[in-house]
Amino acid sequence: MNFIRQKMIKLGLKNNSKSQKPLSTSQIDWVLKNPFYYGKMRSKGKLYQHNYEPLISLYLFEKARKVKENWHKKPFRYASKPAIFRGIIKCAECGCMITPEIKKGKYTYYSCFDYHKVHKKRIYVREEELLKPIYEVLKSIQIPVNVMEWLTKELKRIHENKSVFHQENLKKLQKDYDVLEDRISRMYDDKLDGFIS
Predict the structure, then answer these.
(1) Considering only CA atoms, which of 113, 110, 103 is closest in space to residue 127?
(2) Would the N or C end of the chain have less CB density within 10 A of its end CB?
(3) CA dist., res. 13 & res. 22, Å (int)
């Protein structure tokens, strides 16, 4: 938040009070949370569409909100490392989550973290061992040929629809971006010409 405040001070942006002081971090926080800028007005706890032209899209507003939510979160040590069963297996004995660990740089082992201190010994199980019963179940599943053909066609159709959807969204985002860039450029010109402080 301080980074944004310093940037605003450099740009000469001030609050609308008599003192004309730079925006405080709480005011910036309020601006970032205000739905008015993407076209909604809050009244008595409910959101209503207003008649003014939105300054930003809902997509950009949500993106900024998500970035702000993650500012103070510490990066998870093993988040980038693949583990098939991460966060989905619990210990049958104590109920703690079974956690994966990478050993020797390439093998994934699972063990109970033993948060409640009920185990005498920590047992490690390789991921390959946990996958064996799953592979056995998958071998017994067979999809009929006509269903497989239908699935293939359906997946191709969904992929094509997604491509069109992404292209249309990219065009819309580019248009929104161009509008914002034009506004920023005009605001900068107005500042240089003395029309705004």
Answers:
(1) 110
(2) C
(3) 6
Q: How far apart are CA 189 and CA 191, in angstroms?
A: 5
pLDDT tens across 39-92, in order? 898 888 888 898 888 888 888 888 888 887 776 665 555 555 678 888 888 888
Q: Does the reported pTM lie above 0.85?
A: no
Contact 173, 59 (CB under 8 A): yes
CA distances from 56 to 32, 38, 46, 47, 190 (A): 11, 5, 20, 16, 20
Q: Is the dihedral of CA 163, 165, 166, 168 positive or negative?
A: positive
The structure tokens listed for 103 are: 């050993």
Q: Which residues pair with 22 in a beta bridge?
A: 14
**C-alpha span between 11 and 191 (Å, rounded):** 9
3-state secondary structure (DSSP) of residue 90: strand
Q: Judge whether 119 and 94 are in contact, CB under 8 Å.
A: yes
Which of the listed CATH numbers 3.30.413.10, 3.90.1750.20, 3.30.2420.10, 3.30.460.20 matches domain 2-74? 3.90.1750.20
Where in the chain does DSSP place strands (E)?
A: 40-43, 46-49, 98-103, 107-112, 125-126
C-alpha distances in Å from residue 38, one per residue of 60, 63, 163, 178: 9, 12, 26, 16
Domain ranges of the chain: 2-74, 75-138, 142-197
